[in-house]
Design goal:
The protein is an alpha/beta fold and 246 residues long. The chain is built from 12 helices and 5 strands. The protein has 2 domains: 127 residues, Rossmann fold; 102 residues, Arc Repressor Mutant, subunit A (Orthogonal Bundle), CATH 1.10.10. Helices cover 57% and strands 10% of the residues.
Length: 246
């Protein structure tokens, strides 16, 4: 059975072209703007969403923000399409929780490769879950409390200006209870777990090679380049620059 893929694009001609190119590989669902895309995502629960950014009514950033904030749809991978190639636009997309980014005009094989990579990652995580493998510090399938904490970091705080008391309050917990639960589940304090989560996101972004080290550090809310470099090396044993070269 083909996997379902939702294309959200207000340009009818471009949307039809993408759909035609992908229909041999996927069951394609189409939406003409962001609001329609959100509604269809909730109804059809596609395996992946491709969305333009600049659209009337509801733009791509708002689509990502709303779907990632919803418990039923926050797991759906989203690729943003845009004709804007400026790095700050990429950073904004990642801040909203987008999983990947493709700049128009693009080659079909590049888009298909990005789609397949994201779907493979989801399939790998599903296999881990099905085998009931210990999760520990895996940043995919995990305890709901940890997922909730990460979702707040990404969708509410956009990786910035967060504090553990604020996160605890939004989770209807006291800071001390959040600390106890985080240590019970991971062996780490909440701030250590969050920092590890941000570093894992940084590694993934650097391996994709779309952003510079500074841009990754900025996008993930690290207060200084020196702190980011030190924390990254402590966790992975190499400097961020070495990861981006791989």
């Amino acid at each position: 059975m083909k996997k379902k893929l939702l294309i959200v694009e207000d340009n009818d001609k471009l949307r039809a072209t993408i759909a035609t190119l992908l229909e041999d590989h996927f069951e394609v669902i189409e939406a003409g703007d962001g609001r329609e895309g959100i509604d269809k995502a909730r109804v059809h629960m596609p395996e992946l969403i491709i969305s333009d950014i600049m659209m009337p009514h509801t733009n791509g950033y708002e689509l990502v923000d709303e779907l990632k904030a919803n418990d039923k749809t926050k797991h759906l991978p989203i690729i943003l399409l845009t004709a804007l190639s400026e790095d700050e636009k990429k950073i904004e997309g990642y801040n909203f929780g987008a999983d990947d980014y493709v700049v128009k005009p693009f080659k079909f094989d590049v888009l298909l490769s990005r789609i397949n990579n994201l779907l493979k990652t989801r399939d790998d995580l599903k296999r881990i879950y099905d085998k009931s493998a210990p999760v520990h510090h895996d940043f995919g399938v995990k305890d709901p409390l940890l997922s909730h904490m990460e979702a707040l970091l990404v969708n509410h705080f956009k990786f910035r200006n967060f504090s553990i008391p604020e996160i605890a309050e939004l989770m209807n917990m006291t800071p001390s209870k959040l600390e106890r639960e985080a240590k019970r589940l991971t062996g780490m304090t909440p701030i250590k777990y969050i920092n590890d989560f941000r570093l894992a996101k940084a590694k993934d972004m650097l391996e994709k090679g779309d952003l510079s080290i500074f841009e990754v550090s900025y996008a993930l809310g690290f207060k200084s380049m020196s702190y980011f470099g030190k924390a990254y090396k402590e966790k992975y044993g190499i400097a961020p620059s070495k990861t981006s070269e791989i």
